[in-house]
Amino acid sequence: SAIPLRACAEEAAKHGSDYLVATYTLKHFSLPQSSSENINLDVRRVARALTKSLFSTKSAYSSTAELISDLRDCLPAQIEPAVSWLDGMISVSEAGVVSLTADQSAL
After folding, report:
1. pLDDT tens per residue, range 9-41
2. Whole-angstrom distance between the N-terminal and C-terminal Cα of the chain?
3. Which of 15, 34, 37, 60 has the fewest CB within 10 Å, making it most exposed?
4. Which phi and psi angles does 58 have, rounded to 5°?
C-alpha cells in the first residue's frame, strides 16, 4: 500500500531527522510506479540494505534462519523476509554458515 511521502518526511523531521534526507531515503527505497505524493516501498530493497548493516556487526550467521530472524526484527511486523531476496548477496557454506559475498562485503 502507498504511504504519503510528505507526511512521512514531516514526521521524521519532528523526531530530529532532516526533511530532505528523509524524503530522499524514502524515494530511494520506493518502487518505480510510485507517484510523487504517495510511494510504495520496495521491501526487498530495504531488506538488502538492512542485511548489509546486519553484517557490519556480525561477520557471519550460523544459519539462514538466524539471519532471517534478525532481518525480520528490523522490518515492519507484517513483512516476512525470504532468503531469495538476498540472492547474489549472501553465500551459505556447506556447514550452513551465512556470510556476505566477497563483492558485497567490499561495499
Report:
1. 888 888 888 888 888 888 888 888 888 888 888
2. 31
3. 15
4. -145, 125
Alpha helices in the chain (DSSP H): 5-14, 19-28, 43-57, 64-74, 102-105
Report the candidate in 47, 34, 45 with the shortest Cα–Cα distance to residue 8.
Answer: 34
Whole-number Å distance between alpha carbons of 12 and 20 = 10
Cβ atoms of residues 87 and 74 within 8 Å: no
Closest CA to 26 of 5, 12, 44, 11: 5
Q: How far is CA 2 from CA 31, 41, 52, in A?
A: 10, 8, 26
Q: What is the pTM of this model?
A: 0.75
